[in-house]
Amino acid sequence: MSDLPPLPFHVLSAFAPESGQGSQAALVIYPSTTDPRWLDEDYLRKVSADFNYTATVHIAPNPANAHAHAHADDDDSVMVAASVERKKGGRDDGNSERRGGGEREMSWMIRWFTPKSELALCGHGTISTSYILFRQYPELQIIQYENPIAGKFQSRRLLPDGCSEGVGDSSSGTCKEVEIELPNLSDEVISTLGTGDPRTNPDADALRNALGLGLGMGVGAGQEKDEQEDILDISEFKYGDKKSLIILLKGHVGLKGLNVDIKALGDIASGQIIVTQMSAESEESQSISENTLVIRSRMFAPGIGIQEDVITGSAHTYLTNYYLSSPATRFLPEHLKGKDPKSLRIQATQLSERGGGMSCTLGQGVVKLRGRVREFGRGVLVDDDDEDDD
Prior knowledge:
Blueprint (H helix, E strand, L loop, with lengths): L6 E8 L8 E7 L6 H4 L1 H11 L3 E7 L1 H8 L25 E3 L5 E10 L9 H14 L5 E6 L3 E6 L11 E2 L4 E2 L1 E7 L3 H4 L13 H8 L13 H4 L2 E9 L2 E8 L12 H7 L4 E6 L1 H4 L8 E10 L4 E3 L4 H13 L19 E6 L5 E7 L3 E16 L2 H6 L1
Parallel strand pairs: 2-3, 5-6, 12-13, 14-16
Antiparallel strand pairs: 1-2, 1-18, 3-5, 4-5, 6-7, 7-10, 8-9, 10-18, 11-12, 13-14, 14-15, 16-17, 17-18
Helix pairs in contact: 6-8
């Protein structure tokens, strides 16, 4: 493959409020979907294994961009932009188009891999990708993505006045946060979440053991069994085609300090195992914004090559559906019950060793995840087989 152009790559930390936090990902950018490396599944997996992050993202411009360019109307409201200049070393590729409102957008094919397998959805990989593309294409407002498993979704550039406090720069017109919109779970699946009684769930005992939960952990003696139960709910869904679980714990449980048997969790479910709880702050409406739910979580996925993830965008997509759209709303603090779900915001922290955080809201058929991304490296991939010939 020595006659092919080198592939640029970036390495980033996503959902990283502070330096040294966030989930790390690599991004590899291909010139087209006809590039033989893009078409070579073994190559994608090899590169992903070499980076050895929980996600390596592979993207290529969607051929639909060129199709739209060739068939655009003369009307400026639907015209395809002739070019989108890059901030550094401008590039004219004809791949962006303008919406009716004058918003520039571009579409990309996207795939995500762990060192072991392909991912059905990856939030931290997607938000990292959006961060780089918005920097490379300063006129771009919307990025459309298409994935063979997850389907179509998008990311939108945030302006300074839409940023969280302290991360917007009005002088440069930039925001250090990025927002992505990932697809909801199906209505059918959402309707089943929050209905998994731990007293009757067949996985309950195995989960208690794997999570290091003793019945009534931290609860006084003499209480009824229901009162002693640390698990409030066990809900099942599919991550791709893999059995996955959301386990809701009571707020008093020391989630970060649990001594988890990850192998045992992998024997229970082959997809994502998301352990979550609402913080005590959420119970006190005066302590935070009255429309904010504060949650904590940990996520394990040994079945797809992730022991414990640092911070997981896809898991928080499912958690946003869980807390705000499903029968699990019955667990919400009283001051949040009955409110329009789209008016509520989840402030989420993942209690991994590195840690990370994001905010989550509901949109129309999507979950909006917002967070900080930090780039810590870049370069080009070389063909190591060619290196051997030198």
